UniProtKB/TrEMBL annotation:
GO molecular function: oxidoreductase activity, acting on paired donors, with oxidation of a pair of donors resulting in the reduction of molecular oxygen to two molecules of water
Similarity-based family: Belongs to the fatty acid desaturase type 1 family.
SMART domains: Cyt-b5
Pathway involvement of the protein, from the record: Lipid metabolism; polyunsaturated fatty acid biosynthesis
Keywords, alphabetical: Fatty acid biosynthesis, Fatty acid metabolism, Lipid biosynthesis, Lipid metabolism, Membrane, Oxidoreductase, Transmembrane, Transmembrane helix
Topological category with respect to the lipid bilayer: Multi-pass membrane protein
Protein name listed in UniProt: Fatty acid desaturase 2
Predominant location: membrane
Keyword field contains Metal-binding: no
Domain Cytochrome b5 heme-binding: 7-80
Presence of the UniProt keyword Lipid metabolism in the record: yes
Compartments (UniProt record): Membrane
Amino acid sequence: CASGGQTGQKVQRHSHRGDQWLVIDRKVYNITQWAKRHPGGIRVISHFAGEDATDAFSAFHPDPNFVRKFLKPLLIGELAPTEPSQDQGKNAALVQDFQALRDHVEREGLLRARLLFFSLYLGHILLLEALALGLLWVWGTSWSLTLLCSLMLATSQAQASWLQHDFGHLSVFKKSSWNHVLQKFVIGHLKGASANWWNHRHFQHHAKPNVFSKDPDVNSLHVFVLGDTQPVEYGIKKLKYMPYHHQHQYFFLIGPPLLIPVYFHIQILRTMFLRQDWVDLAWSMSFYLRFFCCYYPFFGLFGSVALITFVRFLESHWFVWVTQMNHLPMEMDHERHQDWLTMQLSATCNIEQSTFNDWFSGHLNFQIEHHLFPTMPRHNYHLVAPLVRALCEKHGVPYQVKTLKKGIIDVVRSLKKSGDLWLDAYLHK
């Protein structure tokens, strides 16, 4: 280990791919080589190179004490006593108050999951699948029954998305290995996707939400321009991959309908084969084997393919609106090195609580609380929400809550606004 007395400015200089330091609880770590072996993926930990990653470290690890043993060999010193605990430009009082809130959350047991809640939730997903198949066995096939079964299957798929999302973030069981098996079962066997693909993608989103080049969810592959900054940059450079001033219209044609059936499917298969992730591939194939064994007797091969395609089409609409209404209308920009709370609040908003909204969104209507405390089980979001709101009011941080209708409308409005900004910059700058 090097001697202590590191400065914040020195740490910030070590933020390149081949030279990465970060700070956790005032201790300085050289993660250059470890980043390649980081279980959460190289990109997630590298996003915090050169920064104080204390709050991010606490947010992502359900058992920080267990993880610290891996940090010991990486320790190269500590911040000098005269150095502040937070990075330059960050509000020290806000950082301290948020860390105090997190300590309170842990003491109150709000990070502990209730096994009964998730067991019942899994049960209602399995019940939907069983009812869809049972209707066909009892009543036979007809247009109306096929449509009803499709809706039930799409509902079970959407709800399974929210459940695997829970298992990916938190440890429902004390033995985390069981938790990983459950996630692979839900996302693999019940949905036909890949747990590792989702984890590596989604954790990046949580690490730096709505930050270009760091959050994969805002990588629109030149199909859309998002936020207030990117459209102007594209316009000034005279980039026109698409007629962006019409993106709020063509979004309905290529966004909700195609995200899961086309883009995600291609990306999932490509990722599993490139990484040789044969375990996830086996889980995924078990879904399709089960699906075709169940529905081939009723619809045949091509009919079963049409059924699963239609189910994915319905699920994709559901997934897109739920995930985008909390993020797409919010701020999007390049890296600004904000403190954890400010960064998450600028990129997220909540949707009003109701029994339907909770179920429809898998409790992701509490997106603010979920982003601040990713390992918190969803049944505790409503308990911590008043405390988060009070902290935001104290420090003047906007805490946005919308109706479900406004959240959906704002997705379209934000796309139109960004398209107009692009057109103005394209024509006049």
